[in-house]
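Hey, I was hoping to borrow your eyes for a little while. I've dropped the whole record in just underneath, so have a look:

——
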Amino acid sequence: MAVAGEGGNALARPARADDVTDDGWLAAYQAASQRARQAWADDAKLDALVEVPWGKIPGRFAIAGYIQEILTHGWDLAKATGQPTEGDPDLAFFALAGAKRVLPPEARGDDIPFAPVVPVPPDAAPYAQLAAWLGRQP
């Protein structure tokens, strides 16, 4: 995300963390987070076109996509390790609204790497709804 915000091609320089020690992940994540915040500090970048893995799009849509990625894969990790899967509901509903716009139920399979939507009750927790929309079993 930082590379895209800095004007680079996020596809040409994949992020790697080969040199992070077992006890260094929090510091590495915090450093990457700070770099991304600095890269996107200028509001003009929200309308600038950036290159991300899913295409060349305005910065605001790239940020929304990365928020969805972070929340969803954070949910994956929490679920896999038996930790709480729910966080800030406003973020989950934001990501879910975007996911519903760009990833309708019929656009699954082939080169779209998402399983079918998993049905959940309308009152399911926000992160469970997001996970289910993206084909995960809450």
